[in-house]
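Customer escalation, tier 2.

The customer says the design service returned an amino acid string that "doesn't look like it belongs to this structure." They asked us to rerun it and document both sides in this ticket. The original C-alpha cells are below, unchanged.
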C-alpha cells in the first residue's frame, strides 16, 4: 500500500514496511476539528493531501492560524517528543484521506529507527520555522500581503489555482475583521490577480499574487516546501 504523504514516501523501504501494518486509512472531512487545544494525542495522522490548519487560541475564544499541514507533514507530531496533548486546535480546511497510527507505536518507532527519527526531526524543525514566520507576518504585514500569502499557501497545498475559502473563514484564520479581507480581496480582483465567486477564489496571475505577498511566503516555502525525495521504486 503506497502513500502520497511525502514523509511516508521518503522512508526507506524497510522502515515503511515496518510501519505499514500499523497504518490505518481514514477520511478527514472538511470542517472536522481533529483536536482541541490540550486534548490527548492517541493517534498521529499522515495526510494524503488536503489542507489542515493549526490554530492558536486566546482565552476568550479568538483564534489565528499559525501553520498549515498537507501531504508534506504529520499531525500530532508532539507525541514523539513525549508530549501527551496537542498544542493547537487542529481543523480540517480541505478534506483528505490520511494514514493514522497509534501515538505510542509511532513514538516507539521514532526511538528505534534512525531514518524515521531524522525525517520527523527535520519536519518538526520546518514546522517550527513556519509557526515563527507566521508570528512575524501577523504582527508586521498588511492585510493584502497576508491574504496573498495565505492564498498562495493554499494553492501550493491543493495544487490548484482555485481555492475554496470564504472571506469569513479567511478573516477568522488571519485574526482580522472580515471587512479588511473584503477590501483586500477587492483590490486584488480589481488588479486582475484573483477572481472571487460563491466562496471560491481563483488565482488568475500567480506571479503577481506572489509579488503582492510579503516575504514570509518565500521564507515559509523555504522551510516547508523542500520535501525529502521519495524512496526509489
Amino acid at each position: 500500500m503506497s502513500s502520497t504523504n511525502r514523509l511516508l514516501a521518503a522512508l526507506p523501504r524497510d522502515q515503511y514496511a515496518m510501519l505499514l501494518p500499523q497504518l490505518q486509512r481514514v477520511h478527514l472531512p472538511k470542517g472536522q476539528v481533529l483536536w482541541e487545544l490540550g486534548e490527548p494525542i492517541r493517534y498521529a495522522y499522515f495526510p494524503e493531501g488536503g489542507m489542515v490548519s493549526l490554530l492558536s487560541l486566546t482565552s476568550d475564544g479568538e483564534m489565528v492560524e499559525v501553520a498549515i499541514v498537507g501531504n508534506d507533514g504529520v499531525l500530532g507530531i508532539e507525541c514523539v517528543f513525549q508530549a501527551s496533548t496537542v498544542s493547537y486546535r487542529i481543523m480540517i480546511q480541505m478534506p483528505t484521506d490520511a494514514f493514522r497510527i497509534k501515538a505510542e507505536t509511532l513514538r516507539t518507532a521514532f526511538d528505534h529507527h534512525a531514518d524515521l527519527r531524522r525525517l520527523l526531526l527535520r519536519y518538526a524543525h520546518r514546522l517550527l520555522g513556519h509557526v515563527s514566520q507566521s508570528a512575524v507576518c501577523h504582527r508586521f504585514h498588511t492585510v493584502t500581503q497576508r491574504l496573498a500569502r495565505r492564498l498562495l499557501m493554499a494553492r501550493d497545498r491543493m495544487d490548484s489555482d482555485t481555492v475554496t475559502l470564504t472571506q469569513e473563514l479567511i478573516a477568522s484564520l488571519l485574526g482580522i475583521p472580515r471587512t479588511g479581507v473584503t477590501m483586500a480581496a477587492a483590490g486584488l480582483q480589481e488588479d486582475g490577480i484573483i477572481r472571487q465567486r460563491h466562496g471560491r477564489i481563483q488565482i488568475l496571475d500567480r506571479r503577481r499574487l506572489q509579488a503582492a505577498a510579503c516575504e514570509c511566503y518565500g521564507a515559509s516555502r523555504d522551510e516547508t516546501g523542500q520535501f525529502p525525495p521519495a524512496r526509489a521504486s
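Tier 2 assessment: The sequence is consistent with the input. Strands lie at 24-28, 33-35, 43-47, 51-57, 63-69, 89-94, 96-102, 162-163, 194-197, 200-203. Confidence is low (pLDDT under 50) at residues 229-233. Sent an explanation to the customer and offered a walkthrough call.
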